[in-house]
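queue> holo job accepted (2-acetamido-2-deoxy-beta-D-glucopyranose)
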Amino acid sequence: MARPSLLIAIWVCAAVARADPMLERFERWMGRHGRLYAHAGEKQRRLEVYRRNVELVEQFNSMNNGGYKLADNKFADLTNEEFRAKMLGFGPHSRTGHTTTAPSTMACADSGLAEDYSDLPKSVDWREKGAVAPVKNQGECGSCWAFSAVAAIEGANQIKNGKMVSLSEQELVDCDTEAVGCAGGYMSWAFEFVMKNRGLTTEGNYPYLGMNGNCQTPKLNESAVTISGYRNVTASSEPDLLRAAAAQPVSVAVDAGGFVWQLYGGGVFTGPCTSELNHGVTVVGYGETQGDTDGDGGETPGQKYWVVKNSWGPEWGEAGYIRMQRQAVAGAADGLCGIAVLPSYPVM
Ligand SMILES: *[C@@H]1O[C@H](CO)[C@@H](O)[C@H](O)[C@H]1NC(C)=O
Ligand SMILES: *[C@@H]1O[C@H](CO)[C@@H](O)[C@H](O)[C@H]1NC(C)=O
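queue> job finished
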């Protein structure tokens, strides 16, 4: 029989545990995301990280400043440092915290001024046209560069050939020797690999593993889709990015390292972020908010945005997407989070 003092101690602990509403919320969150921890100490540590993130989310949302929301999403048990180390991957060594700034490209002096963009549609959504595969998940591997390039190739192929063929990121991770797999790469390297290899095989033929593997060389000549080249959009010109995105999905690099990206929960994202590029994503459209259509307070009307496909699974953001403010600051040529600094797209 247990000693009475021990029983009292257990009873007290249980009572304290039940009295912590954050623990209950955390356990519901764990259930929702299928999360298990190796031992009680780890769970306790994660609870404290979760608690700080929930406080951050609630504080941010109560200010209701930018109109977008944060959420205790699937990254809510990670510190921002852990999140940065796991979920990015633009540029080699990005996992060590190194970020890539824009190469010193001369922007054409007349870009966005001399040319008229009034011929472009007011909004474009390549998802509605079947040119965007379902949102994928890079896992804990810095392979965003592969996902960004593949989404742009899938889009270009569907637009040209009328067929959506989901393509293999793992082939790029394993076989593109210029890049360093899960330790990062550039979309331009991915496009160059596809050109040299005369294509990429399907997702089904070379499925994603989320870790570095040996290149399965027999699959290199089982290409389903190829490209003839790729182009860089004029650096730091949102109007030129608009023209490119009106024609097809476009690979872009952004700064996605902040807690506002980590915990993004929907709405038109307005920052804060920098132009220190560390993550590859894909612009799959653009538009403008219509405002309150259902009487629930809704969004501020007339906010211009980019529709951006991410590779953190459909549970993140707006079903895996983020809408990012377009023409955020007049005259700020880099675009929000550097979205216009280094865009590129494949040519079929
Ligand atoms: C693919 O390459 C392998 C050698 O790596 C070769 O044996 C095979 O015949 C090739 N298949 C096609 C369809 O070209
Ligand atoms: C695109 O830009 C990258 C980075 O500046 C550069 O390395 C690459 O050669 C450019 N590619 C083309 C096709 O212009």
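queue> The chain has two domains: 22-30+38-81, 82-94+113-347.
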